[in-house]
Amino acid sequence: MAVKAIFDSKNILIIGGAGFIGSQLADELVKGAKVICLDNFLTGADANISHLYQNANFKFINHDITVPIELEKRPELRDFKIEFQGLQEIYFLASPTSPRAYNNKPIETMMVNSLGLNNALKLAVRYKAKIIYVSSPAVYGETGNKKIKEDYTGSVDQFNPRAVYSEAKRFGETLVANYRSRFDLDAKIVRVFNGYGPKLKLDDGRMIPELIRSALNNKDLVVYGRANDIGSYIYISDLIQALVAMMESGEFGPLNLASDVKYKFSEVASKIVKLTGSRSAITYHNRESLMANQPLADITQIKEKLSWFPITLIDEGLKKTIEYLSAQKGILEPK
């Protein structure tokens, strides 16, 4: 009779674990589990995870998930006993997410959300692990500026400059749903709206880091949109708590993961100017081709099903984000 392996903590794989979300998810999970961080630094950064290298419960593997991987054969995972314990949870965050990143790496974006996700789902089937696919509101297509529920289906132009990302995420969700159906897999989907916080890159290209960079350098803040346009922004610690709650739940989703507090673009820009003590002016410009109207999330389902809600106020979140970004080297450009 085979003896069941006994282990004191879960083995958790974070694919895309050196990125903005993945690295801070690792910080949280390593407190009570053994964490395998897999990343090829396409958009992630070694600096995000280097402080964890001396932690016995953390292992990093430099690998491109579009190429299959056999974890049992990796010598650095010997202490995790993958051959006996396997994996219990997989978080899939491996994709460029900012318009600047996926525009520069369009093929890589589509491949990681297809071939890469397929390899991750195969690992989940092999080890009977739970898996979360972190998707995006880009799957909704054009929405205008109204609250969107999870069952909304909008139109997506597959030749639009943003389609490389929206189509990749739409395909990824369909792939996850079919793996769940065919293999009775505990495969979950969340759609993350406008996450921000420490470990964002100054040159990320998204609204908040771009405005902070300009403010810190006393340059005009360029807002793409109108002053009265509305957005919602979720701070990273709230985002991480929601991901963990989703993994521990019996829900499959998709669920909108967002804040339900809305701010005008002018309010966000003004807060950044005030918090940085900047002399910058605020200007408004038409959106570029890669930018779409920001959809607003209806988060009724995630509140009810996970008993979760965001608690970080934007002033507190922006202050922490500014403190982190202002400490990055080379922030002040030469005059």
Automatic annotation (TrEMBL):
Keyword hit for Lyase: yes
GO process annotations (BP): D-xylose metabolic process
Gene Ontology CC: cytoplasm
KW Lyase (keyword) present: yes
Transmembrane segments annotated in the record for this chain: none
Keywords per UniProt: Decarboxylase, Lyase, NAD
Listed name of the protein: NAD-dependent epimerase/dehydratase domain-containing protein
